[in-house]
Amino acid sequence: MSKFIVGLTGGIGSGKTTVTNIFAELGIDIIDADVAARIVVAPGSPALSAISEHFGADYLDAQGQLNRAKLRSRVFSAADDKAWLNALLHPLIRQELLAQLAKASSVYSVLVAPLLLENKLHKLVDRVLVINIDQESQIVRTLARDPSSSAEIKRIIASQMPSEQRLSFADDVINNQGVSMAKLRQQVIDLDQKYRVMANNPV
Ligand code: ADP
Question: Binding residues for ATP, per the UniProt record (predicted)?
Fold first, then answer.
């Protein structure tokens, strides 16, 4: 089991997936909060039954899968519904992440979560790594990746922690602002070297 855990976060379009893929290529086990969030509501799960009892069976599709877009739009404008859903899911996601972290076998592991700080998942990690990028680049890169609108991306950015506040939690920062893929990769390689030393020399 890897005992040393790096928590990786950053706003939408900051480069979390790209950076995570580089850590994975370097042999590091990745534990992804978005993946855990899907596992806990998989067809047949207790949480999915609770959701369909609470919100209605029409939140499941014909295959018994959660209609995430429909649920997202329901809780977006209803604070009570959002609070109910978070109270159900957050402990389950945390449990799933802990189970996956316990199984990680690389020298250290990376826990990636868009809302690492907002959801206090940084309490599970030894070090917080933030990817930094300005809002303009977040919008340009997300638009190039997703069929979305800049208004929708701005709404997501507004729902996440402001960048200066996120940076105040950072032990390490990756700059992905106006940086080539090669320069981004080099920053990850340098951090990987540093984390290997830290993981092997616990304080
Ligand atoms: P996140 O997972 O944080 O939302 P991604 O890793 O998906 O962000 O990056 C957003 C988009 O920007 C992707 O299409 C990715 O390929 C691209 N991208 C990330 N870093 C760079 C970079 N340094 N130069 C050019 N494109 C980049």
Answer: 13-18
